[in-house]
Write a structure and sequence with these properties.
This protein is an alpha+beta fold. It has a domain of 84 residues. It is 51% helix and 21% strand. The protein contains 6 helices and 3 strands; from the N terminus they run H-H-E-E-H-H-H-H-E. A 3-stranded antiparallel β-sheet has the order 1-2-3.
């Protein structure tokens, strides 16, 4: 690696590459489309495999280790929570106007997270306002040693 003079460094920073040719852009567009199609197929394959694997893991007590590859698959329960506006109000941590500012048809999680940061509200005190809305099994796969 060579050291650049200040003039050379300035020239390197301001260097503008040649515009891409139409053929190059067309090829990138084709590759992006193909990649998106491959991703969609892989997601579909993943869903089919996951649906087949769930009962197999369930029959084996929720986990399986392949000694040859060192891969372990485990069933884990993933829960989804929503915030309940009335319960948020009952915690006393946030003012009514603050709660109203994060409401859509339900509490907007991103807005609430931002509000918690800006107001200093203690999330652990808001916890009673969380309502579990769904729970489903996911497959967690780990390699030996990780």
């Amino acid at each position: 690696m060579t050291d650049l003079t200040p003039e050379e460094a300035e020239e390197a920073i301001t260097f503008e590459p040649e515009p891409a040719s139409d053929a190059m852009v067309a090829e990138m567009v084709r590759q992006l489309k193909e990649t998106r199609e491959q991703i969609a197929r892989l997601k579909k394959d993943e869903a089919v495999l996951r649906q087949g694997l769930l009962p197999c893991l369930d029959q084996r007590g929720g986990h399986f280790t392949d000694e040859t590859s060192g891969l372990t698959a485990r069933l884990k329960t993933q829960q989804r929570y929503e915030w309940d506006a009335n319960r948020l109000r009952a915690t006393g941590e946030l003012k009514d106007a603050e709660i109203a500012s994060v409401m859509d048809s339900v509490v907007n999680k991103k807005k609430l997270e931002a509000l918690i940061l800006t107001t200093g509200a203690r999330e652990r005190l808001l916890a009673p306002a969380k309502v579990m809305t769904s729970s489903h099994e996911i497959v967690s796969i780990t390699e030996r040693g990780s």
